[in-house]
Amino acid sequence: MMRSVVRGVGSALPSRVMRNADFEGIVDTSDEWIVQRTGIRERRIASDAETTASLGEAAARAALASAELTPDDIDAIVLATSTPNNTFPATAVEIQERLGMHHGFAFDMQAVCSGFVYALTVADLHILAGKARRVLVIGAETFSRILDWTDRTTCVLFGDGAGAVVLEGQEGAGTTTDRGIIASSLRSDGSHKEKLYVDGGPSTTGTVGHLRMEGREVFKHAVAMITDVIEDVFAQAGVTAADIDWFVPHQANKRIIDASARKLGIAEEKVVITVDRHGNTSAASVPLALAEAVGDGRIKKGDLVLLEAMGGGFTWGAVLVRW
Ligand code: ACO
What is the number of the ligand 1 atom nearest to the C-alpha of 23? Predict the structure, then answer.
């Protein structure tokens, strides 16, 4: 049976670091409030020259280098983003051009913070269907551009960045010991739209708009939704929390991550945390965390890795992958 194996991973962050203390002249907040409520200490903010396309390109190049491949070896690009460079064409196509890739196909996916988990699942299905052998899956965001910098309840939470993986179809035995994506589960429920959305768009206001969030409402649903899809992938694969080597959750809030891990029975030392340094980078957060944990040697070949995300829509999903 064909499996979509992660052959390479890479990431890119803007060079400008914005620490919690840097907000103190901008909105009425404090380092203590932000750390206590979210675990965030700093985030990266894109310069005028840095865009979703440039960060996505840099992450893609890093993933290709770690896979020892070139753009010529890639059949398709799937970019998860809610902050594209333009309304159209897809920023994935712009990244395709930046990589000098003039074959195959590229498209964007929009599932807000769940975007990377959605993109990984869609890329996996292209590989399993024989439509592509190698797919570059990127999560790239510049949320700093859609924040209301006068709203303390949202502007302190987000950051910019990008991460990418190269997925490659390889033959497996059809068991959970195979390398590659073992199971995935996607969900959405549009009745929650008003709790987390951007108040603009081409078909409504004709403007880009700003992010609006009822944080407490999102928080209330997050843990139940995350654990729901994780239990689904556990059931599909016939594994339990004890079998997981690494838990790489969407990095929105340390309290949500801790509560989810506790509810699932996943030990604290198996949880990869980057929210303290990246804030919430939406679709980039999971691949950024993956790149860090692979880069520092924590995630190794053969490890069972659990990915999850939850975000605007609401959307939520989980992917179980043997590294
Ligand atoms: N600094 C100081 N005080 C603040 C700040 C701030 N930056 N922001 C809010 N406050 C105040 C509020 O005004 C409120 O004051 P009040 O009691 O006088 O009204 C008080 O702090 C408490 O506010 P809450 O919203 O109840 O704080 P809470 O503990 O819920 O934390 C937070 C807020 C961090 C937003 C939390 O609810 C959260 O993380 N929610 C989930 C967000 C999330 O997971 N998003 C994921 C998806 S993101 C995506 O898809 C794009």
Answer: 7
